[in-house]
Amino acid sequence: MGPDMAEREFSLNSWLRGVRLCKRGIACVALLLAGLLPGAVAATDNAAFREEFDRFDRKAWYVSDGWSNGDHQNCQWSKRAIGVSEGNLSLRYIPLPNAKAGKPAALCGEIQTKARYGYGTYEARIRTDAGSGLNAAFFTYIGPVHKQPHDEIDVEILPRSADRVWLNKYQDGTDHGMGQLADLPGFDSGAYHTYAFIWEPGRIRWFIDGRQMMEQTENLPSHRQKIYFSFWGTDTLVRWMGPFTMPDQPLTMNVDWVAFTPLGQGCAFEGSVLCTLE
Questions:
Q1: Active-site residue 52, yes or no?
Q2: Would you call 156 a catalytic residue per the annotation?
Q3: CB within 8 A of 98, min separation 6: which ones?
Q4: Residue 273: burial class (beta carbons within 10 Å; 0-12, 13-18, 19+)
Q5: Which residue, of 43, 70, 153, 219, is most buried by count of CB atoms within 10 Å of its CB?
Q6: Radius of gyration of the chain (CA)
């Protein structure tokens, strides 16, 4: 479920800068050509990048702060719920036990790229704490707030149980009933896993740890989108996300890294799903 008209943003004309990859044993010349080294500014929003969260780059990322996406959400987006430490992004669900009447009972975290991206491979390495009624999401979205149709591609970890990951997409505001749960026997969302989707003009394929989980070829999104991470809760979407109980301490979704590789480019770094498909 993507953001609604309450979403806000700063700039629509920014782009992402690359981050350090040489330390991972990748050829620096190749990275420079791909625009992945520090200071290599993307010529267009669709340039390749890999973000390792050694720091939080506010030129590249916007933090949602001070609102929620509707009555289905039982927390308010807050910059207090976002942190970066030791090469790791954290998005937290923070209960507020002493909240006054009419004020949010919890804070939650969301970030989004300022740039927009099109066809290509989207990948992130993520883990999340367990908790019913929560959603740890890695997705792309564009919509009416951007004066565009609602297009979206979703990976939504539902930590009501350790193996529940929802995969979906929206085209012009509807998912056409095509979303489905990944088949993940023995899976533990509390450990780090690599989630990916490859968006092409005629299909979208979703992968978890290199294994293809779903493919869709009809009613596909076609508009360039922003990349989002969010961690939020609900009291109302019980059948999907499970019954909610307010946690007695903050819960966390962690992101080790995120990467985008434009369509037509191959394996750019160790661990990319594109390396296993070549």
A1: no
A2: yes
A3: none
A4: buried
A5: 153
A6: 18
Burial class (CB within 10 angstroms; exposed 0-12, middle 13-18, buried 19+) of 266: exposed
* Given the residues 7, 110, 123, 156, the one annotated as active site: 156
Show the low-confidence residues of the chain (pLDDT under 50).
Answer: 1-44
What is the pLDDT, as a whole number, of residue 7? 36
Length of the chain: 278
For the CA atoms of 169, 89, 125, 50, the dihedral, rounded to the nearest 10 degrees, stands at: 90
Strand 106-113 and strand 76-77: the pairing is parallel
The answer to whether residues 110 and 232 touch, using CB atoms and an 8 Å cutoff, is yes
3-state secondary structure 94-153: EECCCCCCCCCCEEEEEEEECCCECCEEEEEEEEECCCCCEEEEEEEEECHHHCCCCEEE
pLDDT at 12: 27
Three-class secondary structure of residue 24 per DSSP: helix
The one catalytic residue in 7, 9, 152, 218 is 152
Q: Which two tokens stand for residue 120?
A: 């290509």
Residue 88: CB atoms within 10 Å: 18
